[in-house]
Write a structure and sequence with these properties.
The complex is a heterodimer.
Chain A: E1 6-9, E2 11-14, H1 21-24, H2 44-49, E3 65-68, H3 80-88, E4 92-95, H4 100-108, E5 113-115, H5 118-130, E6 136-139, E7 144-147, E8 150-153, H6 158-165, H7 171-177, H8 179-188
Parallel strand pairs in A: 2-3, 3-4, 4-5
Antiparallel strand pairs in A: 1-6, 6-7, 7-8
Chain B: H1 10-17, E1 19-22, E2 28-31, E3 34-37, H2 43-52, E4 62-65, H3 82-98, E5 101-103, H4 113-120, E6 128-131, E7 145-148, H5 151-160, E8 162-165, E9 169-176, H6 185-196, E10 204-209, H7 211-214, H8 218-226, E11 235-238, H9 242-248, H10 258-269, E12 280-285, E13 292-294, E14 302-304, H11 317-330, E15 345-348, H12 350-353, H13 356-366, E16 376-379, H14 384-392, H15 395-402, E17 405-406, E18 427-430, E19 446-449, H16 452-461
Parallel strand pairs in B: 3-4, 3-6, 4-5, 6-7, 9-10, 9-12, 10-11, 15-16, 15-18, 16-17, 18-19
Antiparallel strand pairs in B: 1-2, 2-8, 13-14
Helix pairs in contact in B: 2-5, 6-8, 13-15, 13-16
The chains are: A alpha/beta, B alpha/beta.
């Protein structure tokens, strides 16, 4: 798979805590058998209720890096949420923290979800607001986020970070390679051997 | 780990047993003993297998049911909703093609995946379990480790019976003392989330321990574990004990005969012992817990029923924006008592509180009373078996005489993927698990989470009411 070391692009600030996946993609759009078209409905209900929502702001169109708050992606496990963000154009997410299932779904789709300190998130958002066309760079190798003169540190769960930077985020391909070990594990589990 | 055997907690013991190998990234390839799937998060996963020419490695270790999109009035096919019908056709085709057992609507075992697994005896102590649904944490009630996963991981488990994970830390959440009358498992978990926060469990598995959980039935433990994810913990579990063993005895897919006795011995031996080590410990006094109601837009925003909706100024500076957003969306005033809040809809059901004991508690409140004129109320059993049991006990009559609608099994208005939805700004007293903006089908609809008995109390009162005053 592609090595994901740096994601560079314009930012989109959405500094709200506890954004759940129902808000990212309302459940009615889960009535589907593919992920196609989900990008058209990302944050749909929030956007209808606030006409100045950042996803509708002309200054942030074409953004690739979402800047958000604490516990982003909490709630439902729906992979439709990162898929909707990806299909809108988001390629990296910077936040104070992420819900675990959402984080795993992002990694499985090659989208780094990296953590930064709240004060640094405010600085990054301010830098984007001041000059929306200026790109951010989320650097997974150096563990920093750069925006013009501003450089802040970021962290990411190491296993996920390594899988992205080494191009090993296609877990399915790696997992099936271990079929022999998988069968050996199954053979030692009491409940798969009638508890003998 | 350098720990001695007796210091290893259940979570780490089960994790170690299921470790296949270390991945190049440093993550663990973990064997998943039981996989459960449903119609919403599986179609793209099966397509991923087709795209790569992969098979389901252990088809007998995956069980499918249908729940999220199931209409609860008429289940005649084709469904009126063409998109729902397409999803039904997809899971039927996928299960047939890949050799997976499907409990369809025509099967008396069908129901919400987290109700069906336990009642069939599929969910057992010491196993690893995964399902493409965040409320998979429910199954931890049996002392297994159960993960909610996304669709890519559903594909991983289908194709390899394993997935790549980083080991979480383990926090023991001990609830001491004894619950007061009228305080239920739902109140316990809402209280825990209120105290530890909706993000407090990120990176942790929660072990629920202490006298309050020891005294709980399996169904009560399921309610608690179900909402672990609402506190940020992907897994939550209770150590297996004699209550667990007796619940499983005789279940159709549990071990039978002599194998059951061998299984029970293994199960009981997995429990965290008195020397078990944890990465963190929290203690909560069960006697302090009141019937609890949410007032905001996440499950941590709750108060005891005798309390007032908190003032924004009572929150830390970082929390104030969230509290303000919640009050604004809900249209509630700070410092206002939660009791007496008018409701429009009452919903009893969901994987959190759609089991037989939940319906019994709600029926105890509804019996001999009438749903308030301004309220529409529905009861949606968690499974067909729950529905049949309730009907055998006459609970359907109790509910219908009180003015509740009695529906077929499914997820229904917990997330409103089927036709059961809030309309406009309606306020719903709900026994479900999420009060997120728009969760119950109307983008501006509002949800108050509470126990099923409290929902019934609200339904007959027309407003949030203290169930302790209704049941003696």
């Amino acid at each position: 798979m592609q090595k994901i070391e740096i994601v560079a692009g314009r930012g989109l600030p959405l500094l709200i805590d506890d954004i759940d996946t129902d808000r990212i993609i309302p459940a009615r759009y889960l009535r589907c058998v593919t992920f196609e078209g989900l990008g058209d409905h990302v944050f749909e209900d929030d956007r209808k209720q606030s006409p100045d929502h950042p996803f509708d702001d002309p200054r942030f169109q074409g953004a690739k890096v979402l800047i958000t708050g604490r516990n982003f992606g909490c709630g439902s496990s729906r992979e439709h949420a990162p898929q909707a963000l990806i299909r809108w154009g988001i390629q990296a997410i910077v936040g104070e923290s992420f819900a675990e299932i959402f984080f795993g779904n992002c990694t499985a789709n090659g989208v780094p979800a990296v953590c930064a300190a709240p004060a640094d998130l405010k600085k990054l958002a301010a830098a984007v607001l001041a000059e929306p066309a200026r790109p951010l760079a989320v650097d997974l190798v150096q563990s920093v986020i750069r925006c013009g003169d501003l450089t802040v540190t970021c962290t990411m769960q190491d296993g996920a970070r390594r899988s992205l930077v080494t191009g090993n985020w296609d877990f399915l391909g790696q997992l099936v390679e271990a079929e022999t070990e998988i069968r050996q594990t199954a053979q030692r589990l009491p409940y798969l051997t009638n508890f003998t | 780990m350098t720990s001695t055997a007796s210091s290893v907690n259940l979570f780490n013991r089960v994790w170690n047993e299921h470790t296949v190998r270390e991945m190049p990234s440093g993550q663990t390839q973990l064997f998943i003993g039981q996989h459960l799937i449903h119609e919403v998060t599986s179609p793209q996963a099966f397509q991923m297998l087709r795209d790569r020419g992969l098979k389901v490695l252990f088809p007998q270790r995956t069980l499918a049911t249908v729940d999220h999109i199931i209409p609860t009035l008429s289940q005649a096919r084709p469904f009126a909703d063409g998109l729902a019908e397409e999803m039904m056709s997809a899971i039927e085709r996928n299960c047939r093609e890949f050799g997976v057992t499907l409990l369809n609507t025509s099967d008396p075992r069908q129901g919400i995946v987290h109700v069906v697994g336990p009642e069939l005896g599929v969910t057992q102590p010491g196993i690893t379990l995964a399902c493409g649904d965040s409320h998979t944490s429910t199954h931890g009630a049996f002392g297994c480790i159960a993960f909610g996963i996304g669709t890519s991981q559903v594909a991983d488990v289908l194709a390899s019976q394993t997935m790549a994970l980083s080991r979480p830390r383990v926090r023991q959440v001990r609830v001491s003392g004894k619950l007061h009358r009228g305080v239920f498992a739902k109140d316990v978990i809402l209280h825990i989330i209120r105290k530890l926060g909706v993000q407090g469990g990120v990176g942790f598995a929660y072990e629920y321990a202490g006298p309050v959980f020891d005294a709980m039935t399996m169904e009560e433990r399921m309610t608690v574990c179900n909402m672990s994810i609402e506190g940020g913990a992907r897994c939550g579990y209770v150590n297996p004990d004699q209550t667990t063993v007796e619940y499983l005895r005789g279940r159709p897919l549990a071990p039978q005969g002599a194998a059951f006795d061998r299984a029970a011995a293994w199960w009981l031996g997995l429990a965290s012992g008195p020397d078990a080590e944890f990465d963190d410990r929290v203690e909560i006094d069960g006697a302090q817990i009141e019937p609890t109601v949410t007032w905001g837009i996440n499950p941590g925003q709750s108060v005891g029923v005798s309390e007032r909706i908190p003032a924004v100024s009572s929150f830390s500076p970082e929390e104030q924006a969230g509290a303000r957003e919640a009050l604004s969306f809900m249209g509630f005033d700070e410092n206002h008592p939660i009791q007496g809040t008018r409701i429009d809809v009452a919903f009893i059901g969901s994987c959190t509180n759609g089991r037989i004991s939940d319906l019994r508690e709600a029926a105890n409140v509804a019996r001999g009373r009438k749903v308030a004129a301004n309220v529409r109320a529905l009861v949606v059993p968690g499974s067909q078996q729950v529905r049949h049991q309730a009907e055998a006990e006459g609970l359907d009559q109790v509910f219908q005489e009180a003015g509740f609608e009695w529906r077929a099994a499914g997820c229904s208005m917990c997330l409103a993927m089927n036709p059961d939805k809030l309309i406009g700004r309606e306020i719903c007293a709900s026994s479900s698990n999420r009060n997120f903006k728009g969760r119950q089908g109307s983008p501006t609809g509002r949800t108050l989470l509470m126990s099923p008995a409290m929902v019934a109390a609200a339904a007959v009162s027309g407003c949030v009411a203290d169930v302790r005053k209704l049941v003696h």
